[in-house]
Design brief:
heterodimer; A: alpha+beta; Heat Shock Protein 90; Helicase, Ruva Protein, domain 3; eight-stranded mixed sheet; six-stranded mixed sheet; 17 strands; B: alpha/beta; Arc Repressor Mutant, subunit A; Dna Topoisomerase Vi A Subunit, Chain: A, domain 2; 2 domains; three-stranded antiparallel sheet; binds adenosine-5'-triphosphate; binds magnesium ion
Chain lengths: 624, 368
């Protein structure tokens, strides 16, 4: 995300998205209505997930003028029982593009901080109506906002704000937007239906513009444990990301201007008093580590310059030459560059080198990555042929490439921490599949966590066959971070993997009645666009998908061959039932007899065990 | 005298019908008993696979070896063909009892009235061959006849056995276009003839010429048009003329490898019918047109096609072509790489073949 942010800082982000709104899924009235529904429903579910609340989400779509033909303005309202948004953040959250609370490394449906605002923006430009947000955090007071968006400034305009008493916490958003329900209806209903499959602990209702009500009550009572925020895993990290982490880890050499000096004085409690250089140093030594980092850097500089605040005011730091232990500065009074030597024994020397050259490699690794302890860090340094105390700031480009390659290939890192992920779990997934498709056979797998580009992910997959599933399969249901993906399936990695599978090998032939449910959980789903509809094919993800599918396919094959045997036996017994009486008829006349022979005995002999029994014997396999 | 002989013959054909019915009944009774005893019915059938077709030098024809396969109604893969065969036996039984004739195609369609499915006619044809193999009787005995017709002409008295004509007699020289050899001629009784030889020719055109030129009278012969490869009904009739009337059979074909083989099939059967033994005339003689005749009679020729040549090489592998004129003529065909039709004699006048060639060949036949 930050790369888009960087690239487009010349125009405001909301201007950028305004002119590129089809990127975010707002290309036409049909797609926009669908995307708006998604964004609000997903925000509600995210908010409830984070606070461990069993979600009740109510979606309503109403035509402003039901008589008008589509496309026409609709009022879309999504109401939840979640934690709401703090009153002072409501305008920011709903009126600013790229403002969100979900940028941290953990799994959530939202990730860009633009979904809700884009929907609101789209509503505003098509109907010129404000968005209404009602939010209550404590379940007592509700803030009601009417907001408009200032697109150029990427800022909300508060049209109205009032509060009232209320008895339940939660948030509701209501926008007016141009949409085409006659075309988007199927997709929206599918979306609600599939969302309730992958969010079995939520109750979701939908009142559609035609007065139809769709009610999907929760069928699982406990919420999967919420994810925690974590650091990246070293596997699959790239040079660019390391470079960015180093920049974050370096303290800048502070610009010593009036404000900075004022701040340092305040931190030392010397706002009013003028102390001598030695007195200042003494004071600083006493305060020690309790001082803010920047202040400590200024004091370190002062310690080598041997200057008080007054003198400090008249110079500018030019360079800190660590190898030669020299400090260069420009003296405004004499108008010339000067230098002092730095004592490497001094406690302040370390602080300055640290500032300029960054942390040692081992510290960098243990502090900024998951799964790297001090021992592993030293082992890794040896593997990568770096000195453990090598300063990150001194790494050349070549060394960074070497570091990144080694991080990717070093095998002793533990698998990524998946605490930041919130997969649904095999059990609720299986329960959902059985409830939704009522199949003869179900198998579900949750793969162990894996990582791509430093982001952990987990694949969950289910397969179901027969029963009430219609033929023409495999019908693929794609989910990512508990979001159903309904558009653009053609270019999706899951579809690719399914299409590559040789189903004949698994005894699945013709137009089989079968369903595949795939759920990718990750801190960052590699979506191809901001519209969040199709997942790009990263080799690591593709591999995990294949493994999951293979495992399930083998189980399906085992079931199919048993089922095949049962069907064969049935077919055979049907054959006997058909042909033996004919043989009897013909040979009776041939033999010149009147009465047909008694062939019942042999028909009984070939009649296999009741087919029903066999299907029941099947059941234990499904659960394995 | 004729009547007494005819009565005797009538008795014989009645006997034959009785035998067929008896045999079908015994097969049916076996199946019936199996079923009634709570057992899956089964029977064995001689294998018709290539590996089981062998040439019997003594019989001078292809026969089936000792391999046989078991057909069981217990085997679900065989259940369908088992039923089809049972139906066919049942159907053949009715045909024979009612003395009704039918064609291969009729059989295919008749099956549908009994809900017995045949994928196509080739499947039902195949089951008919199965019935022949099990019973060692040609399908004509069950009143199933092929579509192809060939014809006969000459002084031969016959007596019909088919329903509606029973006892009626006929002389086969009364109609100059000849008589087509269908079910009635295949099943009729042969009563008497003044002929001393049977001449089988490959082509209808030459047949007509022979009738015109009164070859039947000039050479005391019965003329038969085989219409290319002789149908089984014609071969049966040839065999009966030879066996029952004591007439020698000579064959006149085009001067090419196919002609040579037409003669061979009349003489010793085909691999396709290795399961049957009543279709051959081992003493039949091929008198021409030989490859050596092409030079001898200076006949106009056509070059052999690649296909003709391939056929020559194929036949060289056949055990029947390993000696005598069969081998010699085949070799010469291959050497000449040319062939000549019966009509080629017309170059020397339309009656050249009947005036010159035929008498020479008839003379020669005596010494073959
Ligand atoms: N129903 C809600 N309850 C509580 N907080 C909400 C709700 N809806 C939105 N928010 C807050 O508003 C922020 C902005 O939402 P928005 O949809 O614009 O971005 P996002 O969900 O973080 O990312 P994305 O663009 O991927 O949807 C969220 O991060 C969340 O903090
Ligand atoms: Mg969102």
């Amino acid at each position: 995300m930050s790369s888009i942010k960087e690239k487009f800082n010349q125009i405001s982000p909301s201007e950028f998205f305004y002119s590129n709104r089809d990127l975010a899924g707002f290309s036409n009235p049909t797609r926009s209505l669908y995307t708006a529904v998604r964004e609000f429903v997903e925000n509600s579910l995210d908010a409830c997930d984070q606070k461990g609340i069993l979600p009740d989400v109510h979606l309503t779509i109403k035509a402003v003028d039901p008589e008008k033909p589509d496309p026409k303005p609709y009022i879309l309202t999504v109401k939840d029982n979640g934690p709401g948004v703090d009153s002072k953040y409501v305008p920011l959250a709903f009126g600013t593009i790229l403002y969100g609370s979900k940028f941290g490394l953990k799994q959530a449906r939202g990730m860009f901080g633009l979904g809700a605002t884009m929907a609101i923006l789209y509503g505003q430009i098509t109907t010129n109506k404000p968005v209404i947000v009602k939010s209550s955090r404590d379940g007592k007071i509700q803030d009601e906002f009417e907001l408009l968006l200032d697109i150029q400034k990427n800022k909300p305009i508060i049209v109205k704000h009032k509060t009232k008493e209320i008895s339940k916490s939660g948030l509701s958003v209501s926008i007016c937007l141009e949409g085409d329900y006659s075309k988007a209806g199927t997709k929206i209903r599918d979306y609600v239906y599939e969302t309730s499959l992958i969010t079995p602990y939520a109750t979701i209702t939908f009142d559609d513009p035609k007065g139809q009500k769709f009610h999907h009550p929760r069928f699982v009572k406990n919420i999967p444990s919420p994810p925690t925020i974590i650091r990246p895993h070293p596997h699959g990290i790239d040079v660019e990301r390391i470079r960015r982490m180093i920049v974050e880890s370096l303290f800048e050499i502070p610009n010593i201007d009036d404000t900075m000096i004022e701040k340092v004085r305040k931190d030392l409690g010397l706002s009013k008093k003028n102390l001598s250089f030695t007195a200042i140093m003494e004071k600083a030594r006493k305060k020690g580590k309790s001082l803010p980092c920047q202040t400590r850097v200024v004091i370190a500089l002062m310690s080598f310059l041997k200057m008080d605040f007054e003198k400090l005011n008249k110079i500018r730091i030019e360079d800190i030459d660590v190898p030669n232990k020299k400090l260069f500065y420009w003296d405004f009074g004499d108008s010339q560059s000067k230098s002092v030597d730095m004592d490497s024994e001094s406690q302040y020397y370390n602080l300055l080198t640290h500032t300029v050259q960054g942390e040692p490699l081992t510290t960098f690794l243990t502090k900024r990555f998951q799964r790297v302890g001090p021992t592993t860090a030293v082992k890794f340094a040896k593997f990568a042929k770096f000195k453990p105390e090598k300063r990150m700031g001194t790494m050349t480009n070549q060394e960074l490439v070497k570091l990144s390659n080694s991080l990717q290939t070093f095998e002793d890192f533990m698998a990524p921490d998946s605490n930041c992920l919130a997969p649904l779990g095999a059990e609720p997934l299986e329960k959902g599949i059985k409830k939704f498709f009522n199949p003869d056979f179900t198998a579900v797998v949750q793969r162990p966590a894996s990582a791509y580009s430093g982001f952990p992910f987990i694949i969950e997959m289910g397969i179901a066959y027969g029963g009430e599933i219609k033929s023409g399969g495999p019908h693929v249901y794609r989910f990512a971070n508990r979001i159903p993906l309904l558009y653009d399936e053609g270019s999706d990695v899951v579809l690719k993997v399914v299409n590559d599978a040789d189903w004949g090998r698994y005894k699945v032939k013709g137009e089989p009645p079968f369903v595949i449910v795939s759920h990718i959980c990750s801190t960052r789903i590699p979506y191809k666009t901001a519209g969040k509809e199709n997942v790009a094919d990263r080799p690591e993800i593709e591999r995990e998908l294949r493994l999951a599918l293979q495992l399930l396919s083998r189980k399906l094959a085992a079931y199919m061959s048993k089922r095949g045997q049962a069907e064969m036996a049935k077919k055979r017994s049907n054959l006997y039932a058909k042909y033996i009486p004919m043989i009897a008829e013909f040979c009776t006349e041939l033999a010149g007899k009147k009465k047909e022979p008694d062939y019942k005995k042999i028909l009984e002999e070939v009649n296999p065990i009741e087919p029903k029994k066999i299907v029941e014997e099947e059941k234990p396999i499904e659960n394995k | 005298m004729k009547t007494s002989k005819s009565k005797e013959l009538n008795k014989k054909s009645k006997e034959k019908q009785k035998n067929i019915l008896e045999m079908l009944k015994s097969h049916g009774a076996k199946i019936y008993d199996d079923l009634d005893n709570g057992q899956f019915p089964k029977f064995s059938i001689p294998s018709r696979s290539v590996s089981n077709i062998v040439y019997d030098k003594k019989l001078r024809q292809y026969i089936l070896g000792n391999n046989s396969a078991l057909r069981s109604a217990k085997n679900s893969a065989q259940l369908r063909s088992f039923t089809q065969l049972m139906w066919l036996a049942f159907f053949a039984n009715r045909l024979t009892q009612e003395k009704k004739s039918s064609t291969l195609r009729d059989v295919y369609y008749s099956s549908q009235a009994f809900a017995v499915e045949f994928e196509d006619q080739s499947e039902s044809d195949n089951i008919i061959v199965d019935l022949e193999a099990v019973t060692s009787k040609p399908r004509e005995d069950f009143h199933i006849f092929p579509e192809e017709r060939s014809s006969i002409f000459g002084d031969l008295d016959i007596e019909y056995t088919i329903p509606g004509y029973e006892g009626k007699t006929m002389n086969l020289s009364n109609h100059p276009d000849g008589y087509s050899i269908g079910p009635s001629l295949t099943t009729c009784d042969l009563v008497g003839t003044s002929a001393e030889i049977v001449i089988a020719v490959e082509k209808g055109g030459l047949f007509t010429r022979f009738v015109e030129e009164q070859i039947d009278k000039k050479f005391k012969s019965i003329i038969i048009n085989t219409g290319g490869q002789a149908p089984r009904s014609t071969r049966t009739l040839l065999k009966r003329l030879h066996d029952e009337m004591g007439l020698p059979v000579i064959i006149l074909t085009d001067g090419d490898v196919y002609g040579e083989h037409i003669a061979m099939v009349i003489k010793s059967g085909s691999a396709n019918a290795a399961h049957l033994r009543e279709l051959t005339v081992p003493d039949a003689k091929w008198v021409g047109v030989w490859a050596t005749d092409i030079e001898k009679y200076k006949l106009p020729t056509i070059p052999m096609t690649e296909f003709d040549i391939k056929r020559c090489y194929d036949l060289q592998k056949d055990p029947r072509y390993q000696e005598g004129i069969w081998k010699k003529e085949l070799d010469v065909f291959l050497k000449l790489k040319r062939k000549a039709e019966l009509e080629a004699f017309s170059k020397y006048g339309l009656t050249n073949i009947t005036d010159k060639y035929l008498p020479q060949k008839l003379e020669l036949a005596k010494s073959l």
